[in-house]
Amino acid sequence: MKEFIQKNGDEVAIVIYDAPLPPKYFRLTKRFIKTLFVVVPVVLVASFLLIFSWGLGSRIKHVPTPTLPEVLPAEDSKVAELQAEIKSLQESNNQLAEKLSGQPATATPEDPYLMAIKKPYGMQNLLSQNKVNLDQFSMVQEAGKVSFKFVIMSASPETKVTGHVLVFMMSENGLMAYPERANALITQGIKYSTGEPFSVSRLRPTNAEFRTQLTGQSVKFVIYIFNREGDLLLIRETESFKVGAKS
Predict the structure, then answer these.
(1) Which residues form a coiled coil (predicted)?
(2) Which of 148, 144, 153 is nearest to 237 (CA)?
(3) Euclidean distance between CA atoms 243 and 247, whole angstroms
């Protein structure tokens, strides 16, 4: 009897008492119990590790590869900096050259005057466009006054030209300007807008008067014409007129 009780079996019996119901009797094999408590946890842990490894691997694929800082010698770093600066200067020079090539000729800062006229800021030199011309020059001398007469002509009758005209008389008396109020500004620079306003479609007679008594043998005149924006339209220097002669 004792040997029968201590004999090892392949099954395990479980009795569950649930009064007042009759007891329930379960018989399990040892192999099933080992599978339940050993194999199943191992399978679950292995499955978890496999899923974790797969998810981590897919995430690593999308992570950019870090770039390590490159250590340059001091001389190489300085060369790279100078090359970048040269490239920037070349780009700036190209942009400036393109900008200047598309603009009309302007007054140079090294020569801020036209005779006694202070060049207008940003003045454009439009002499080559020949928008106006001059004709019929004459000089009349009276007591204490000199009248210089000429005609301003528009190059295109269909286009009206408006602006300012300044006339300078050069003689042994010195330099004088017309209109008369411009004489007070000769030393500091005459503004183009001080000139006599004009508007011409075809012909526009002009009479420049200088209140002086001429001395010497000859006199000449220089005419400057600007448009209303201060751009230079015409410069004309006349031949010499004899003092005392009738023109």
Answers:
(1) 72-99
(2) 148
(3) 10
